[in-house]
Amino acid sequence: MIKIDINKKLHGSNADMQLKVDLEIKENEFVALSGESGSGKTTLLRVLAGLEEAEGTIQVGSQIWQDSKSSLAPQKREIGFVFQDYALFDNMSVGQNLLFVNKDQNLCDHLLSITGMSELKKRSPNTLSGGQKQRVSLCRAMMKRPKLLLMDEPLSALDPYMRSKLQREILTLHKEFGTTTIMVSHDPSEIYRLSSRVIVLNQGQIINDGSAKDILLKTTGSAKFSFKGELLEIVKVDVIYIAIISIAQQLVEVVITADQAKSLSVGSIVNVSTKAFSPTITL
Amino acid sequence: MLEILQNLNLTPFLLSFKLASITTLILFVISLPLAWYLSQTTSKIKPFLEAITALPLVLPPSVLGFYILISLSQNSPVGSFFNEHFNVSLVFNFSGLVIASCFYSLPFMVQPLQSGFEHINKSMLEASYISGKSKFETLLRVALPNIKPSLLTAIVVTFAHTVGEFGVVLMVGGSIPDETKVASVAIYEMVEIMDYQNAHIYSAIMVLMSFLVLLSVYMFNSKQNNKFAGFHK
Asked: Which of A111, B2, B73, B137 could form a cystine bridge with A139, CB 3.0-4.6 A?
């Protein structure tokens, strides 16, 4: 069990705000931390890692990481941290990056093979792609066999294909090492696939806490599904009009009436939803 | 021509290089923690430390030389302490030159190192702390190897600058042959006695060597910047 009760004044881009988080996380839980930028997600991770100071207490299992009297240095906390910008040691090869943490050759080889990086063990980080770099960063974080794995938007710079591959690897490692994981993410499919619990921060406060399903499903009323998309073009085919809409990097066609064709303008954001089997489209 | 070169007294050059080597070594040891501290701290004393460090850049060498002379002379507390306890004098000898050069060349060592440290990706250092490594180990194994160009610049420029110093050396060391008469002072004296031939040779040697040293630094640095395509051992 991880108990977090911290308080920290933040200088946000708009105004100063108070980061106030009181939270209990079960062992082996996979928590996704979501919320607008500037809501305090990264700061929370950094406070947990001991990289930033805050008032309050942090208790992991029976160990006190921070209380009113003392704070454990980052070196002494059993954490792995995956940075958004990878933060690999450029002067070391992939293998040396891992062995820097812990000289366990077997663990190093094992981690590299799980992530399909064995062939690249001797390569310099500067020669790797973004996805490969983030794999090295992930492996390096696991070399300590951390109790708590913290990831700050680890996949946000990667393309969708690479993302889903790495998501599977993260899940594999999370399960195999039995870590408790907290991951900052904005991607609903990522959150849904990985996390057992979602915490949404806003202005430094927790505004939502629950399962991914409860928090992310956004259909309202009797709609079976509902997506936001951008109207790209309206084409007239014989007597009907077809709207071409871009939804999450996919294009779909929806038949609309002549009246709708007149009232809709290209470039606007529309809601595409369906009740039963006839798609309807609204602004 | 060959005869002239054979009769050339190379002691002033050897003295210059000995002085520069020792000064560079001492300054490296002193500046490494100082530059690291300056690059990491947010303390209010940082600007004061930076200003003091940079002073030798703007002060006339005569001012620096004057204060060093005063504070190291046998009448000063420091000078008399060394004289009584170790029976050494700190002015008009080689030790005095080393101390004076360390003050004079300090910014040339500190500033490139500090700038190198400041440009390191901060999360790289944090990743090292989280990996369980102390600040000292992080400095040696992560920070230093990642600022190789700055490191080389700091060392070479400090060395070259010490070889090239004149005013401070003259004031603190005088011109004692085989003891404090370094190349720059020797050239000054040759010009004074209108020995232009030897002054020419000495000066040409200085120009050539300085150029070669700087050239090798810049060549190394441009190579370093292109390097990141290879395999590690």
From this structure: A111
